[in-house]
């Protein structure tokens, strides 16, 4: 059975396009929401990023994270009640205001005390980010609007904007249990919905933004944890070094994993390409010739499907060529 590869849901709750069904969308005429999503994707509008960066299970962990995002009080945070908290002890004020000491006591059941189960999270740490060049103030406004929708009067939250690197991003800390006792469980569908809402709020503010799955965009880079990504940027990633050593060994297990990964990657890519061409055909039939041509051009420009190992091997080859060229330049 083929795995569905979908464009995100519309505001009305229905799936915009099911690429695995070859864009037929139950044989109905494409809606304005679907056409907008297609246009944003094929024109490669900047993609929003939303990720859970962790969550604290202890009062000390909550305070440490708040101190980090608030730069030890110099930057501070903005609360769900519109207050700006700064200073050396602002994190303690939040812990007290949110009754996290009581929440921490409730999570210490008999099993967790005996060490058989970790205590439940007291807060979730979430990051909303956009590519370089995006107006930072609009990123902050978009996250404010998103947070006020599902969390207002339910889950307490605090947020702050960081502009100390090229990607403007907002850290959002959300109390895991609402004032009504409902626990927030963040699943893949939750993150998908948040990405769509974040992109919608940005577009309402005049910022070009999109939220689609990697496979649908023909994206071949796999996501990495923040720690691995930063280490790779510094060129001291242990994860990448380990992959390089495995690639050099070319053992049977490594080759087997590579073959399986390649087969799945090519199967997914085949489904995506077939789906997009069917979407182009639908648009052609509906006389939207410009968008149909844009879809075909988008598919033609997709990078070849390549596994992590193949991408790493190409990176090593490029580095080797660069070293050889530098050596030639020095001998001239």
Strand-helix topology:
Blueprint: E1 6-9, E2 15-18, H1 32-42, E3 49-54, H2 59-69, E4 77-79, E5 84-85, H3 90-97, H4 100-107, H5 110-113, E6 123-129, H6 136-148, E7 157-162, E8 169-175, H7 188-204, H8 226-234, H9 238-249, H10 252-285, H11 289-300, H12 308-331
Antiparallel strand pairs: 1-2, 3-6, 4-5, 4-7, 6-8, 7-8
Helix pairs in contact: 1-11, 2-3, 6-7, 10-11
What's this, in brief?
The protein is an alpha+beta fold. Helix content is 49%, strand content 12%.
Features of this protein?
332 residues; alpha+beta; BirA Bifunctional Protein, domain 2; six-stranded antiparallel sheet; two-stranded antiparallel ribbon; 12 helices; disordered N terminus
Q: Please mark out the parts with pLDDT under 50 across 5 or more consecutive residues, or reply none.
A: 1-5, 7-16, 20-26, 224-234
CATH architecture of the largest domain: 2-Layer Sandwich
Main beta sheet: 6 strands, antiparallel
According to DSSP, the number of beta strands is 8
- Percent strand equals 5-15%
Q: Structural class, from secondary structure content? A: alpha+beta
Report the mean per-residue pLDDT as an integer.
79
Assign the CATH class of the largest domain.
Alpha Beta
Briefly note the CATH topology name of the largest domain. Answer: BirA Bifunctional Protein, domain 2
Q: Judging from the principal axes of the Cα atoms, what is the shape?
A: globular
Distance between the termini: 60 Å
Order the strands across the largest sheet as they lie in space: 3-6-8-7-4-5
Helical fraction equals 40-55%
Give, in order, the helices and strands: EEHEHEEHHHEHEEHHHHHH
Rounded Rg? 23 Å
Number of helices: 12
Whole-number count of domains = 2
């Amino acid at each position: 059975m083929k795995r569905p590869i979908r464009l995100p849901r519309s505001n009305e709750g229905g799936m915009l396009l099911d690429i695995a069904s070859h864009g037929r969308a139950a044989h109905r005429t494409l809606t304005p929401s679907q056409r907008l999503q297609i246009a944003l994707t094929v024109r490669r509008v900047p993609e929003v990023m939303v990720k859970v960066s962790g969550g604290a299970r202890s009062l000390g962990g909550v305070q440490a994270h708040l101190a980090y995002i608030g730069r030890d009080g110099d930057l501070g945070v903005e609360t769900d009640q519109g207050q700006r908290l700064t200073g050396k002890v602002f994190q303690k004020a939040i812990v007290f205001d949110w009754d996290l000491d009581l929440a921490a006591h409730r999570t210490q059941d008999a099993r967790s005390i005996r060490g058989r189960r970790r205590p439940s999270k007291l807060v979730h740490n979430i990051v909303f980010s956009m590519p370089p060049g995006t107006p930072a103030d609009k990123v902050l406004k978009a996250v404010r609007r998103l947070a006020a929708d599902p969390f207002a009067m339910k889950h307490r939250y605090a947020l702050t904007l960081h502009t100390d690197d090229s990607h403007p991003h907002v850290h959002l800390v959300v109390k895991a249990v609402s004032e009504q006792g409902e626990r927030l469980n963040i699943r893949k569908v939750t993150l998908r919905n948040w990405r769509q809402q974040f992109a919608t709020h940005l577009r309402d503010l005049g910022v070009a933004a999109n939220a689609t799955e990697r496979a649908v965009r023909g994206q071949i880079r796999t996501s990495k944890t923040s720690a691995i990504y930063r280490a790779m940027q510094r060129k001291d990633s242990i994860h990448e070094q380990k992959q390089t050593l495995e690639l050099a060994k070319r053992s049977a297990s490594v080759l087997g994993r590579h073959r399986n990964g390649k087969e799945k990657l090519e199967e997914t890519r085949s489904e995506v390409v077939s789906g997009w061409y069917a979407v182009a055909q639908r648009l052609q039939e509906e006389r939207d010739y410009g968008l149909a041509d844009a879809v075909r051009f988008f598919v033609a420009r997709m990078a070849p499907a390549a596994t992590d190992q193949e991408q790493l091997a190409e990176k090593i080859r490029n580095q080797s060529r660069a070293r050889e060229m530098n050596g030639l330049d020095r001998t001239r």
